[in-house]
Specification:
single chain, alpha/beta, Rossmann fold, eight-stranded mixed β-sheet, 14 strands, 35% helix, 25% strand, FkbM_mtfrase
Length: 297
């Protein structure tokens, strides 16, 4: 596409977003990446799927490969409208435990997954210790970030340990997906510790900018996961394109490129999708090696 064509396309997209954002939670039915979903009109998923067909498909393919080696049980933290759960179960049989705390998206989540007996929904905010510090939801284009210390409009909280106790069908957890806009680095190790004997594959957004905004050190997650026995890491960019494979003892230094954004952070949202595998999980290692065969430069 020419430069003028690109500018025209970008302008058209932004005008469309402005219109859709005026009626953000108007329900619409969309065919997205092979599945039918009921979405808020403002949701960006259909746009992302058109611009980058690989968007989100790394998680779906990872679930499919893991299902080929044994029962697939998935914990979907920050389930949003249920798009990940629906797409995973469209690609492979299994069970998904969805946890979502934003009341605005829960209606859409239920519309999309309640017809599937393989999906369980927990209406709660997952926190490390289950404590309620008071949160408010900040929503942007189909995603939610919870800010602590403001007027609460989130659901009750639950800890990973309580979540495991309350849902014995997920005792042998195989895959964790976490998308909590900066809180992933704090939650994912807590989930891994709660299910330490199951050694699930951990898939989450690694976004140093939002992590610091949430008050956490983005590097600390790698030390914590290494201490829990996690060693192997597959990396994709935020559009689902392969970046490379590395280890928990090297990735913090390699991730410095995420802080080097030409034009400043406001230009775009730059982050990685990562899948982290325990050193004793041979099937998990094979799955991420099939998906991401080459080392991270």
């Amino acid at each position: 596409m020419t430069g003028l064509g690109t500018l025209a396309s970008t302008a058209k997209r932004r005008i469309g977003w402005v219109v859709r954002d005026r009626f953000p939670f108007r329900p619409v039915v969309r065919q997205v990446q092979g599945v039918e979903l009921v979405l808020p009109w403002s949701h960006r998923l259909p746009d992302y799927a058109v611009w980058q067909p690989t968007y989100g498909q790394n998680l779906v393919e990872l679930g499919r490969l893991l299902a080929a080696t044994g029962p697939l049980t998935v914990l979907d933290v920050g389930a949003n409208v249920g798009d990940s759960a629906v797409q995973i179960l469209n690609a492979a049989d299994g069970k998904v435990l969805c946890i979502e705390a934003d009341k605005a998206y829960l209606d859409f989540l239920h519309r999309n997954v309640d017809r599937d007996a393989r999906v369980t929904v927990v209406e709660a905010l997952l926190t490390v210790d289950g404590a309620d510090s008071g949160t408010t939801a900040v929503r942007t284009g189909g995603t939610t970030r919870f800010v602590e210390g403001a007027t609460g409009d989130a659901m009750p909280t639950v800890s990973p340990t309580s979540l495991r106790t309350d849902h014995p069908d997920f005792e042998r957890l195989r895959l964790v997906k976490s998308d909590t806009d900066g809180y992933d680095v704090n939650l994912v190790p807590a989930i891994a510790e709660a299910w330490h004997d199951a050694q699930p594959v951990l898939f989450f957004e690694y976004d140093p900018y939002l992590t610091r905004l949430a008050g956490f050190d983005p590097d600390a997650v790698w030390t914590r996961l290494a201490e829990l026995g996690y060693e192997h890491v597959a990396v994709w960019d935020n559009g689902g394109l392969v970046v490379g494979r590395t280890t928990t003892d090297r990735i913090a230094q390699q991730a410095r490129v995420l802080d080097d954004v030409p034009g400043g952070r406001a230009r775009s949202r730059i982050y990685w999708d990562v899948a982290v595998v325990h050193r004793d999980d041979a099937d998990g290692l094979k799955a991420i090696t099939d998906l991401v065969p080459d080392p991270l430069a």
